[in-house]
Amino acid sequence: MSQAALPTTTATAPATTDESRTAAAPGRKARIALRTLQVVLALFFIVASGLPKLFAASAAVESFDKIGFGDWYMYFVGSLEVAGGIALLIPVLSGVAATAFIGLMIGAFITNVTALDGHYAATPLILIIPFALIAWARRHHNAELVRLVRHRA
Question: Which residues have a Cβ under 8 Å from the Cβ of 87 and sit 6 or more positions away?
Fold first, then answer.
């Protein structure tokens, strides 16, 4: 048989084009960005916001004295912030935690405007945006959480 008569086969790897890689990349990049946002917000609310309230840092005590609810309220808000920050890091709790933080930020805005003369009132409003993004992106975890709670009950 001649060389031309032999059937030729070529083994090729599965087709991976630049298009298929870039089509999958935005989803992966978005997940990484969302997770990074959750970690940054969690660290902020645990370390920079919640713990100073729990350890009665002078700046926190001063701010809460102006509010007029007493030290119990400072410890309560600090506990909520630390618990919420930890919950942001737990996948099944992240959507609920982000939603709870939205409520906390609305309360912080109202408190800033009414009791603290509006200083830093924009900060809680700005923080509502990333929390809303996290709550929306992690909304599928809510059904999983309900299923876990019902299973335990």
Answer: 93, 94, 96, 97, 100
Report the distance separating Cα 42 and Cα 88, nearest Å. Answer: 6
Separation of alpha carbons 54 and 57, rounded Å: 8
Residue 15 CA to residue 36 CA, distance in Å, equals: 32
Q: What is the pTM of this model?
A: 0.80
Angle at the Cα of 128 from the Cα atoms of 95 and 44, rounded to 5 degrees:
80
In the structure encoding, which two tokens stand for residue 58, read together? 């002078």
Question: What phi-psi label fits residue 31: left (phi over 0), alpha (psi between -120 and 50 degrees) or beta?
Answer: alpha
> CB of 79 within 8 A of CB of 61?
no
Q: Kindly report, residue by residue over 115-133, the tens digit of the pLDDT.
A: 988 888 999 999 999 999 9
Q: Which residue has the higher pLDDT, 145 or 131?
A: 131
Give the Cα separation of 44 and 88 in Å (integer).
11
Give the amino acid at 9.
Answer: T
